[in-house]
Amino acid sequence: MTTTTATAGVLDIRAAEALPEEESQLQILARRFSRHRLAMVSLVVSLVIMLIALLAPVLAPYNPYEIDVSNTFAPLMAHSEVDSRIHYLGTDHLGRDILSRILFAARISLTAAFLSTLGSEIIGMIVGAISGYYRGWIDSVIMRFVEFMLTLPQLPLLLIISAILLQSPESIPIPGAVVQLMSWFMLIPPREAQLVIVVVSVLTAFGWLSTARLMRGMVLSLREQDFVEAARALGASDLRLIMRHMIPNALAPIIVDASLLLAGFVITESALSFLGFGIQDPTPTWGNMLNFAEAYMFEHPFLPLIPGTPIFICSLAFNFVGDGLRDALDPRLKL
Predict the structure, then answer these.
(1) Which residues, other chains included, contact 261 with Cβ-Cβ below 8 Å and sequence gap of 6+?
(2) Which of 143, 116, 148, 117 minimizes the C-alpha distance to 130?
(3) Can you give the pLDDT at residue 122?
(4) What pLDDT is recorded for position 28?
(5) 214 near 150, Cβ under 8 Å?
(6) What pTM was estimated for this model as a whole?
(7) What are the C-alpha distances in Å from 142 to residues 121, 146, 213, 239, 250?
């Protein structure tokens, strides 16, 4: 009898060891996302673009600010008349190397888009969590304000606010350490870094609205869950409930929202710079490069294509990554 029991115990242990380990939520998400081929390709493209932006000072063949009026509008793969340098994508109206400016523009444009997305998500999560958790008059006031702001034409407002703030960015109280950090990372003068901070602030001021609505809906569904009630019964404060239980459990849709918001900010920042209400020349961005190229597009048709292509690819890739994440997080879809 004892031998039979021991044998059965050994078999149970071996059977348990033979069972596959249960996948974590992150592993399930990665497996489902990897089956979305378009999203995987877009993720690789996005990572390559971000790596190029980070390595712009290393990859850029020449100084993006160097002017050579004797070599303006050089064609693709043109050799400089002064020395043996090759301008792979030609030069602009001031003789500046376009490839170098495109690489530095990627660093600046993507930094502005990433910071705007980060700020919008943080503000939106906090405001939405407060609105959904407390409900009542607090929820009514916040949501009516959000709905009012969403009904306004955002691009004209962005243009007006940017035009006002960019007239004297030095008068805006921005901590010097923040300006110096931005100047160091983007390799631009402090005054140009102030312009970038102003543009990021303007984009963030409108970007958090949709995130707040999304977060509010998530918190409304989470606040009545058993684990929240248990934490409340154990004496957890409102701040702990929101920060420890609400926001972490709502991160999945927020991440999807962030990827889609990032794609939108790439286009919006480029639009502001293109229209002359964003980051200004000589600081290179895809938008202001497109602005200058547009003036000479009939004589040099390839010029608008050079900054326009990365804008198109970035926005498309970020959108496809967001779609892939959304599908991977949807349990109703079989991937």
Answers:
(1) 117, 120, 121, 207, 210, 211
(2) 143
(3) 94
(4) 75
(5) no
(6) 0.86
(7) 16, 6, 10, 18, 19
Residue 243 exposed, middle or buried by CB count within 10 Å (0-12, 13-18, 19+): middle
Residue 270 lies in a domain: yes
Q: Counting Cβ atoms within 10 Å, is residue 37 exposed (0-12), middle (13-18) or buried (19+)?
A: exposed
Rounded Cα distance between 178 and 203, Å, is: 18
Q: Give how many domains the chain has, as a whole number.
A: 1
* Rounded Cα distance, 107 and 112, in Å: 9
Residue 66: phi and psi, rounded to 5, are -75, 125
Q: State the residue range of the domain holding 174.
A: 24-329
Q: How many residues does the chain have?
A: 335
Give domain status of residue 8, yes or no.
Answer: no
- Cα–Cα distance, 110 to 234 (Å, whole number): 44
Euclidean distance between the first and the last CA atom of the chain, given in angstroms as a whole number: 49
CATH number, residue 183: 1.10.3720.10
Return averaged pLDDT per consecutive 10 residues of the chain, 335 residues in all.
53 50 70 86 94 93 88 83 80 91 94 94 93 90 92 86 79 82 86 88 92 91 82 83 82 88 93 88 91 88 92 94 84 61
